[in-house]
Amino acid sequence: MIQTIGILGGGQLGRMMALAARAMGYKIVVLDPTPNCPCGQIADKQILAEFDDVDAAKELLDSCDVITYEFENVNLNVANALLAKLPQTSRLLEITQNRIVEKEEIRKAGLKTVEYFAITSADILEQFVIDYKKNPRKLIIKTAQGGYDGKGQNVINNIEDLSLFEKANYNPKIQYVAEDFTKFEKELSVVVCRNKNGETSVFPVAENIHKNQILFQSIVPARLPDDVEKMAVNVATQLATHINLVGTLAIELFLCGDKLVVNELAPRPHNSGHYTMNACITSQFEQHIRAVCNLKLGDTKLVSPCVMLNILGEDKHLMNRENIGKHKLHLYGKVEAKNGRKMGHINVLADSIDKCLIEVEKLINSNQ
Ligand code: AMP
Question: What are phi and psi of 121, to 5 degrees?
């Protein structure tokens, strides 16, 4: 029987997984190099080590009955050393660690991605620049590996920008993907969980608003026609089945006309799923724990409209508990509040999305 859960990574996602697991009586061991990290603060034990330290990973293996991870860039040697207790396996990590592999896999599942071109060498870039002159368009060039929250992204408006990228920013040791800049009506996301028995459950679709490429707000239920909501749920189940998911998969989507285009996948609970902590019968973190422990999954029903507001390092007034009123504050225990750093979030629940948005506006303006 599973008593102790090991978590690779001690950030906020690990912390919220651990809090959900603790509520169910599990013990937690976390591996993270930072002392007093968000998950370390509430775990039974922290193994202080770098993520590529295979010996430390073996210590984690010996101290737990099952292991999960909170981030996609888990070293694959480490993941493979943990396979005996990693029901999620390393396959989804391999897919989501590289945007090119990820897009190929999404297409293999029969789903749409944006139009893209894989830049895997300097020669290929040179040819791409020549071809671009015949078909100039707005692009976003992203590093294939390691970028998040818009980091590692270059917006290309014209041939001058592309030449500048080639001369000043391009690193031949790195792979890139050049995506057509896509006009979309909305950004959506959907979180799906699946256990080893194949039981699958999808959370309600979130409508996401970004600022400076960082998630600002998630609005649930998303303001969409029913058939688009159904389509998003189908995309999630189709992907979960295609990759034989165990654990959690978050899918970021663009709504383009009446089509859904998959932008990005994350093999873990997602920032845009934080609304589930107060607005659904089961949170994404509890569901993730249920999935990796192969328990029956919980009910994902939405019990109230909700707007989730992210708190970044610069939003000092949103971290002040005196300001929070009746809303649901979640702080991650991060010691240093840097600009753009995710420090916590607030879930605002009300009878309607319009009422939630009014309350969110009041919170945002509470520092004036
Ligand atoms: P990503 O790191 O891929 O999630 O991108 C961060 C944000 O940049 C997304 O949430 C979108 O707002 C925007 N973005 C990313 N890719 C594209 C694209 N191909 N076209 C237009 N906007 C994009």
Answer: -160, 165
Give the Å distance between the CA of 181 and the centre of ligand 1.
8
Q: d(Cα 154, Cα 173) in Å, to the nearest integer?
A: 17
Tokens of 183: 């006009």
Edge-to-edge strand list for the sheet holding 45-47:
45-47, 27-31, 4-8, 66-69
Q: Pinpoint the alpha helices (H) of 49-90.
A: 54-63, 76-81
Q: Would you call 349 helix, strand, or coil by DSSP?
A: strand
Q: Is the CB of 155 under 6 A from ligand 1?
A: no
**Biggest distance spanned by C-alpha atoms of the chain:** 62
Q: d(Cα 89, Cα 85) in Å, to the nearest integer?
A: 9
How far are the Cα atoms of 79, 105, 111, 193 from residue 240, in angstroms, in the given order?
20, 12, 12, 8
Q: How far is the CA of 252 from the centre of ligand 1 (A)?
A: 9
Q: What tens digit of pLDDT does each residue of 41-59 get?
A: 999 999 999 999 999 999 9
Atom of ligand 1 nearest to the CA of 149: 2
* Alpha helices in 74-118, H assignment, sequence order: 76-81, 91-96, 99-108
Answer yes or no: is the C-beta of 182 below 6 A from any ligand 1 atom: yes
- Cα-based torsion angle of the residue sequence 225, 227, 233, 238 in order, rounded to the nearest 10 degrees: -150
What does the alpha-carbon distance between residue 70 and residue 78 come to, in Å, rounded to a whole number?
A: 14
Nearest Cα to Cα of residue 78 among 103, 60, 96, 105: 60
Radius of gyration for the alpha carbons in the chain, expressed in angstroms and rounded: 21
Tokens of 139: 């692009």
Interval 86-133: pLDDT, tens: 999 999 999 999 999 999 999 999 999 999 999 999 999 999 999 999
User: How much is the pTM?
Assistant: 0.96
- Full set of structural domains in the chain with CATH: 4-86 (3.40.50.20), 115-180 (3.30.1490.20), 186-365 (3.30.470.20)
Q: How wide is the angle at C-alpha 290 spanned by C-alphas 260 and 93, nearest 5°?
A: 55
Residue 242, both tokens: 């295609």
Beta-carbon count within 10 A of 132 CB: 18
* CA dihedral (147, 149, 150, 151) positive or negative: negative
